[in-house]
């Protein structure tokens, strides 16, 4: 399945909408798009994962790398709209304790 990623900035929040499957084949595209964000200019980044249908550990690695980059630059990263299945991945790995996650919330 194809991975679609698009950005929208409202006020001081950069929203990133991700749709599709995040796996070994699509993670490089996601990583490239997320690395293009100039974190020093974007202090609050929200990733809307409500349309992510599947994610493996490769996807988790992409989000961990982004989290490290954002926090190193004193920014904030929020994950919103996680399905129960995706949220479970973050719980199992302990990442839900580290990252700001809002289950069911979506960027309007």
Automatic annotation (TrEMBL):
GO MF annotation list: anti-sigma factor antagonist activity
Highest taxon of the lineage: Bacteria
Which PROSITE patterns is this protein grouped with?
Answer: STAS (PS50801)
Q: Which Gene3D superfamilies match?
A: STAS domain (3.30.750.24)
Q: Which residues form the STAS domain?
A: 3-108
Question: Which residue positions does the secretion signal occupy?
Answer: none
Entry-linked InterPro entries: Anti-sigma_ant, STAS_dom, STAS_dom_sf
User: Which ranges of the sequence are coiled-coil?
Assistant: none
Family membership, please give it.
Belongs to the anti-sigma-factor antagonist family.
Query: What protein am I looking at?
Result: Anti-sigma factor antagonist
The beginning of the lineage is: Bacteria, Bacillati, Bacillota, Bacilli, Bacillales
């Amino acid at each position: 399945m194809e991975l679609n990623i698009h950005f929208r900035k409202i006020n001081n929040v950069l929203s990133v909408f991700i749709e599709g499957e995040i796996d070994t084949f699509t993670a490089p595209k996601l990583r490239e798009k997320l690395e293009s964000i100039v974190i020093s200019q974007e202090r609050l980044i929200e990733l809307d994962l409500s349309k992510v249908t599947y994610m493996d550990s490769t996807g988790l690695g992409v989000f961990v790398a982004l989290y490290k980059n954002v926090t190193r630059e004193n920014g904030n990263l929020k994950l919103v709209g996680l399905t129960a299945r995706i949220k479970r991945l973050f719980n199992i790995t302990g990442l839900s304790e580290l990252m700001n996650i809002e289950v069911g919330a979506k960027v309007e």
